[in-house]
Amino acid sequence: MKRNLPLFFAFFCGILVIVSEFIPHRPFSMMIQTLQDWFMIISGFAILLGQISLFQSNLAKIQQRESGWMYYLAGLISFIIMLLVGIFWGTQETGGLFGHGANIQAAMGSKPFDYLFDYAYQPLSATMFSLLAFFIASAAYRAFIIRSFESNLLMITAIIVILGRTSLGGMLTSWLPESLKFWHLPNLSDFIMEYPNSAAQRAIMISAALGIIGSSLRIILGIERSYLGSDK
Amino acid sequence: MSNFMSIFGLWLSVFFTFSIFSFLYKDNPFYKLAEQIFVGLSAAYWLVYLFYSIMLPNLFTKLVHDFRGNIILLIPAALGIMMLLRIFPKTQWVSRFPIAIMIGTSAGINMVRYTKSDLLSQISATMINPFASSSPSIVMGNILLIIGTICGVYYFYFSKKQEGISAVPSKLGIWFLMISFGASFGYTVMARISLLIGRLEFLLKDWLHIIN
Q1: 8 Å CB contact between B182 and A154
Q2: pLDDT, tens only, B51-101
Q3: To the nearest whole angstrom, how far is the Cα of B201 from the nearest Cα of chain A?
């Protein structure tokens, strides 16, 4: 029961979705809508499970005084503060347990949740991702020194696309005559994006779709059952 | 008070910005602190967002306002609670049921969706007459599009060893893929640089008022 019943559920739900695609009438259309609503609610609980797991793992590190436990404590405190202000006074659109908190909103200039988002989460997120600009530059350097034909192709395309999308690129090749306008960097960049890039993206999409169809079939038919975990 | 909070928030943003940038020198306590705070805030932000945008309108509000009419929603609620039982080692197996329903449903949805949107539509979009246009660049582009798609798909065919003449289209496929990765790389660099410019603008404009 512990293994076979979940396998049957996976088979039944998968087949139901596929059948409803071919018979888009009641009761299948209604059943598929219900199943999709349920899917969303269960996904919500799954995300909650992930957050609980993160909380537990941080708490365990703090209790065991692992190296750098103070940082995990700071993470846990920031998690609790953001969660509480969200629950108490809600977000920009929705009110929380204590309503919209007009007084606190007047004192802070915005809701506490939005205040934390604007002044802590947003700068942290933007700076964290902007750090990648430096690491991408170092990765580009390493890709350059490989000196294979394929790596050169990658870097030349990247340079054309970057220059073609900036005013510098347009300025560099603006002197080209009308007969050579194809080689004008913005035009060349557009051509690369529209044709060779689209061709490769299509190849990836078609191949990935074939892979997904295959693995979905394996799951529905119960051949792939690793998501059930061990027999314990 | 509101003005004080705005200035305090600005300095908080500056502190976090410099703490993250300090990693460019080397890993240090300021970066570690900012990193963990980011993880905590990020997790809580998504949890609150999930509660107000998914759980509240789709489950709790419906059950509170019309319990009898939405009694069927107790089934996904029960399945959700079964999912949470994964936390306890003894009841971990109970979470297999909601996981199986989610996996089965998403397998069915993905199979249909990818067959329609990615497989069939992309194949039909590639089946074009390359010589339909009078512009030489478009004709050349269409030929490249067809050859690139076929060679790219051929590269992903791993059931037979690609050697000799059969390796040629595979090699061409790699070249097309490299061009595509180069284009993606270029876009990623531009996106990250624009984020960096945004942070520098924040420091020089909003904080130091050096630029207008």
Answers
A1: yes
A2: 999 999 999 999 999 999 999 999 999 999 999 999 988 888 899 999 999
A3: 12
In a domain, residue B144? The reply is yes
Using the beta-carbon criterion (under 8 Å), do B144 and A77 form an inter-chain contact? no
Assess if residue B194 is contained within a domain. Answer: yes
In a domain, B162, yes or no: yes
Q: Which residues of A touch B108 (CB under 8 A)?
A: 13-18, 216, 220
The tens digit of pLDDT for each residue in B49-63 reads: 999 999 999 999 999
Closest Cβ opposite residue B48 in set A83, A153, A199: A83
Q: Is the Cβ–Cβ distance between B43 and A78 less than 8 Å?
A: no
Q: What is the CA radius of gyration of chain B?
A: 27
Print the domain residue range for B185: 133-212
Element (H, E) at A98: none
pLDDT digits (tens, 9 = 90+) for A50-89: 999 999 999 999 999 999 999 999 999 999 999 999 999 9
Contact A140 B185 (CB under 8 A): yes
- Locate the chain A residue with the closest alpha carbon to B49: A91
Q: Which of B5, B108, B122 is the closest to A206 by Cβ?
A: B122
pTM: 0.85
Residue at B122 is within a domain: no
Contact A81, B43 (CB under 8 A): no
DSSP label at residue B56:
I
Q: What stretches of B156-204 show up as alpha helix (H) in DSSP? A: 167-201
**In sequence order, which residues have a C-beta less than 8 Å from that of residue B182 and are 6 or more positions away?**
A153, A154, A155, A156, A157, A158, A161
Q: What is the ipTM of this complex?
A: 0.85
Rounded CA separation B102/B113 (Å): 16
**Considering only alpha carbons, which residue of chain B is nearest residue A197?**
B180
Contacts of A44 in chain B (CB under 8 A): 50, 54-55, 58-59, 80
- When divided into structural domains, chain B yields a total of 1
C-alpha–C-alpha distance, residues A122 and A119, integer Å? 6
